């Protein structure tokens, strides 16, 4: 098959997969503790590869194909803490390409199993900060391509529309009491989804504000405060899929109106609270999203505002049965703190006690006023 014929066939396969996949659900979550505030969860766990990252992987593969970066039979490599690699392995198998995921050795066994189920291979490194260079090396030596989600996430997605996640949310809210959301809330992994949300609301002239959630061991929040792009940590985030030890190119702070930084133990406590409220398990990054949404809801209540908040249910908690949903596993890693859990539960139940977070941007400024 010629290169152009192979490319056209690959694009057709990806577009056919898109046509077979219905849009993800927007779930209203009753929150009587915050009257006048309606919270919605965009359930990204129902994608064929099981998470929000299905959207990113599809965009990255189309971007790489149409740039001429992928070749028939050549390996595709990614640096990923889990869910992105699962989704990329799905698309690599769809196109008949070998896939290698470079990830920290601490990634859960269930995540590795999910990658291998999709036909991918896991390449583990002890130093989380080494995943970028190792992925580039493997791609170079194997004659393949390094997808590099952290560089290309924000530019591979059509942020103006084309049924991206922002356009989907606005469409699904059309008949709701507050069809233009007050806040869209998303935690930062690559920063690509935040960029898509922020660009879309500006392009559409909406008054909606964007709030980003950040993990404990991550530099996004401090970069948002300082503008210092050289910030780095010598360890990776414990909340899989979000938080980074360096400032990634796809994180665009100017399209984000506010940020919330949370202790990992608080995200885990919120994950458990939401799992009980929904009657099914969610992952830890969804706990981060919930608490960032709570910060927005509390401020709306204090200011007498009404409106809708939309956040993301990133993936199912089934992937974390042997990790974040295991009490002993969490206790061994300092992720179970009874005092923090009590504060989180009280805050989610509407109490005015100070929750365990740091605020920046519009939230912090309005709180001072």
What is shown here, in short?
By secondary structure, the protein is α/β, with parallel strands linked by helices. It has 14 helices and eleven strands.
Features:
369 residues, alpha/beta, Rossmann fold, 7-stranded mixed sheet, 4-stranded parallel sheet, 14 helices, 11 strands, 15% strand
Alpha-beta content class: alpha/beta
CATH fold annotation of the largest domain: Rossmann fold
Count of DSSP strands: 11
Largest sheet: 7 strands, mixed
Arithmetic mean of pLDDT: 94
Number of domains: 2
Q: Cα-atom Rg, whole angstroms? A: 20 Å
CATH class of the largest domain: Alpha Beta
Number of helices: 14
Order of helices and strands: HEEHEHEHEHEHHEHEHEHHEHHEH
- Cross-sheet strand order for the largest sheet: 1-2-10-7-8-9-11
User: What percent of the residues sit in helical stretches (DSSP H or I)?
Assistant: 40-55%
Q: What share of residues are in beta strands?
A: 5-15%
The CATH architecture category of the largest domain equals 3-Layer(aba) Sandwich
Given as residue ranges, the uncertain stretches (5+ residues, pLDDT < 50) are none
The dominant shape is globular
**What is the terminal separation in angstroms?**
65 Å
How would the blueprint of this fold be written?
Elements: H1 3-20, E1 25-29, E2 37-43, H2 53-66, E3 76-79, H3 83-95, E4 99-104, H4 109-117, E5 121-125, H5 131-142, E6 145-146, H6 149-156, H7 165-172, E7 183-187, H8 192-203, E8 209-214, H9 220-226, E9 258-261, H10 264-278, H11 284-302, E10 307-313, H12 327-332, H13 338-348, E11 358-361, H14 362-368
């Amino acid at each position: 098959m010629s290169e152009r014929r192979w490319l056209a066939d690959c694009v057709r396969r990806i577009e056919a997969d898109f046509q077979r996949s219905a849009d993800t659900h927007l779930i209203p979550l009753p929150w009587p503790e915050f009257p006048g505030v309606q919270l919605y969860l965009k359930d990204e766990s129902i994608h064929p590869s099981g998470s929000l990252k299905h959207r990113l992987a599809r965009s990255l593969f189309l971007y790489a194909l149409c740039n001429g970066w992928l070749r028939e039979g050549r390996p595709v490599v990614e640096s990923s803490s889990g869910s992105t690699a699962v989704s990329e392995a799905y698309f690599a198998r769809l196109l008949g390409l070998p896939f290698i995921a470079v990830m920290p050795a601490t990634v859960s066994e269930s995540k590795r199993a999910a990658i291998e189920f999709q036909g991918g291979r896991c390449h583990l490194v002890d130093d989380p900060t080494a995943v970028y260079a190792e992925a580039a090396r493997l791609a170079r030596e194997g004659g393949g391509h390094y997808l590099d989600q952290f560089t290309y996430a924000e530019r591979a997605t059509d942020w103006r529309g084309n049924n991206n996640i922002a356009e989907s949310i606005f469409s699904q809210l059309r008949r709701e009491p507050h069809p233009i959301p007050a806040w869209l809330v998303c935690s930062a992994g690559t920063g690509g989804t935040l960029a898509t949300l922020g660009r879309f609301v500006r392009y559409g002239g909406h008054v909606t504000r964007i709030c980003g959630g950040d993990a404990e061991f991550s530099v996004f929040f401090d970069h948002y405060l300082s503008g210092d792009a050289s910030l780095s940590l010598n360890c990776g985030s414990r909340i899989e899929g979000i938080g980074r030890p360096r400032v990634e190119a796809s994180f665009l702070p100017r399209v984000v109106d506010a940020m919330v930084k949370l202790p990992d133990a608080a995200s885990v406590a919120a994950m458990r609270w939401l799992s009980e409220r929904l009657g099914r398990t969610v992952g830890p990054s969804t706990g981060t999203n919930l608490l960032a949404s709570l910060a927005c809801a509390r401020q709306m209540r204090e200011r007498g505002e009404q409106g809708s908040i939309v956040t993301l249910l990133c993936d199912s908690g089934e992937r974390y049965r042997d990790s974040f949903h295991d009490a002993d596993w969490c206790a061994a890693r300092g992720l179970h703190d009874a005092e923090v859990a009590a504060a989180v539960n009280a805050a989610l139940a509407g109490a005015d006690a100070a929750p365990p977070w740091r605020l920046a941007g519009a939230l912090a400024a309005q709180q001072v006023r």
